[in-house]
Amino acid sequence: MQVAHGNLLTKLPSDSSAEVFELLHERAGLKIERIVSNGQASPPGFWYDNPQEEWVLLLSGSAGLTIADTAEEHVMQPGAWLHIPAHCRHRIEWTDATQPTIWLAVHHEVSNET
Amino acid sequence: MQVAHGNLLTKLPSDSSAEVFELLHERAGLKIERIVSNGQASPPGFWYDNPQEEWVLLLSGSAGLTIADTAEEHVMQPGAWLHIPAHCRHRIEWTDATQPTIWLAVHHEVSNET
Fold first, then answer.
1. A5 located within any domain
2. What burial class does residue A108 get, using C-beta atoms within 10 Å of its C-beta: 0-12 exposed, 13-18 middle, 19+ buried?
3. Which residues of chain A register pLDDT less than 70?
């Protein structure tokens, strides 16, 4: 049986002018993707508010992530993970300006969960 | 809102005599865990045959993983990922003998999928 495989730390996108999303695996209710940031941040005043829950892992680089209604910024270094419940508003304050920041994001649909 | 968070590369288990599984997140149909190996391998002749599909990522260390019915061994280095379909038999031939091998495993239930 052939299986899909790859490496999150290699074949980085050459264009660093925008965040690059790469779908790695998708099934009903589940999506796994790599995100590569190069200094990008959420626009001022913008908050993500996603219907899916998200489990996110930082593999390389660094980033600051804020959860709405908390004063705390999560400074993420390699190996750091965070579980963001559905409709938990959050924003990326900053990503590393000196090297690519590589994320793994696991999106999970929970709307039909009993 | 408080969110669960941690770092996969820190707080490694002190006991290296067996693989250590740590549940990071669990929802209906989804389980995310960290696995730390210290030279362990699957027993001779043993094959994993799981009803869930598994998406696995190696963060640190190294390992060799074989898929049944293929002659190929996947030598996994940091950043390497592999998607293992449900009931795709596989085994771990070896893990790094000189340092901990840290895995992220995403298990996804597919039995009720339409």
1. no
2. buried
3. 1, 111-114
